[in-house]
Amino acid sequence: MNTDFCDRTGWQFWIDRGGTFTDIVAKCPDGTLVIHKLLSENPDRYTDAAVQGIRDILGISADVPIPAAQIEAIKMGTTVATNALLERKGDRTILLITKGFGDALRIGYQNRPNIFARHIVLPEMLYDRAIEVAERYSATGEELIAVNREFIPSLQQAYDEGIRSCAIVFMHGYRYSQHEQQVAEIAKEIGFTQISVSHEVSPLMKLIFRGDTTVVDAYLSPILRRYVEQITSQLSVGAVPPCPP
């Protein structure tokens, strides 16, 4: 692809990485737009379509680092997380939830698309298992039960099994978050690298909606983080500078 008409400084890239094709619109410093399309998966030619597309547009061979200093911004939309969710290929995740509610997300809202079906097929849960934590706030913020640390051996066992993601969802945690914060700190001390707490991810009153969203965050965030790190690692000068407002 010939891009000699541009000075190759201050490039901006907008990338849509889909399951089949990756589409790129690039804006060179003089305002000219360049459009490029390539297969999202082509392991015989490249490891990542977005990176290869940038190389193609800049006219850089595979053995030359991408010059981050010449790039003003990279903005990307991707189905990487969506595909991981549909294919159940996210990171193994532990759910930490208020004692007595270990089956709450499994039970859900009892939605039945076919009300007369006698054989109910429940969806596969995203978390490996639930660890119940003895703690409780009332709906008005009164601490009824302080955090009991008896859950720590179970959490440590999950870590020893190789699990690095955990979702923390407590009753009324959307409004009174101290217990979620305490348990998150314990998980961090153990070594968990992805800790999703419901009062940050989805501060909603409803436990099921809040819990489902928090579990999805813990399940998929490591996938997205690794993908972003894969992109930035191929830039020759650190991270891409942010686009000015």
From TrEMBL:
Domain called Hydantoinase/oxoprolinase N-terminal: residue spans: 13-191
> Organism's domain of life?
Bacteria
**GO BP annotations listed:** glutathione metabolic process
Which InterPro entries does the UniProt record give? Hydant_A_N, Oxoprolinase-like
| GO CC terms, sorted | cytosol
Q: Which GO terms describe its molecular function?
A: 5-oxoprolinase (ATP-hydrolyzing) activity
Q: What is this protein called?
A: 5-oxoprolinase
